[in-house]
Amino acid sequence: MPQGLLPYFRHDFLGSNGDAASLVPIQAFGVNTETYAATTDESGGILALGTAAADNDNAVLRMGPFAPRDGTISVRSRFKYSNVDTSVFFGFSETLDTTTPVMPIEFATGTTLTWNGTGGILGLIYDVDATTDDFRACMGDGGAAISDTGTLGHRANATLTADQWFEAEVVLYPDGSGECWFGDAGHANSANETPLRLIKRFTTGTLLTTTDLFFACLMHENRSGNARTLEVDYFEIRAGRDWRYN
Asked: Is the pLDDT of residue 122 over 60?
């Protein structure tokens, strides 16, 4: 794929001034008062994306919208949370209110995956409210799972530790199919590298509507009534607008 022909957006937050307005074309918002701070105690510099202190306060990075029919869309990021008592969604959501955003999918109870987004969803969800904590690949639409998601998504079997980097990529294809990839320290290779692993390829059953508009987003929500931080190393989106180049 000739990458020079694709719109390509990457924010690695090196030298960010902590002002949400400086993140354009990324939208940044959340429930109550979210915070954005440049952090220089990590290699390359990162964005510290913080929530307020009330239970279920959250903070979001979002870019879009993009339509699958225009070409392959991929979002990739490297991030880590400050504490495990949180929830993280990474991927694509068709609906995400900018005034009072809610997690597109979450665990309302330990064994019940709840679809809050009424539109199409493709991504990875981690929620400490789950009986078994993990990042899970999911695809849904109309407030319910579709394709071959199953009842609880597909586990990454990740090693979950606070202040540990995770890397993920979610790809949405022009036919409405998609893939979720994930890397964590628990799956490092002999060179101590953490290559991305394919967690799930969604290609069968009902797929996402190719004419719908999707936002790429990275979102976290506290689960303990304490302010929590998601440190983001980079947030990268590639989106095509011409089928000839995809």
From this structure: yes
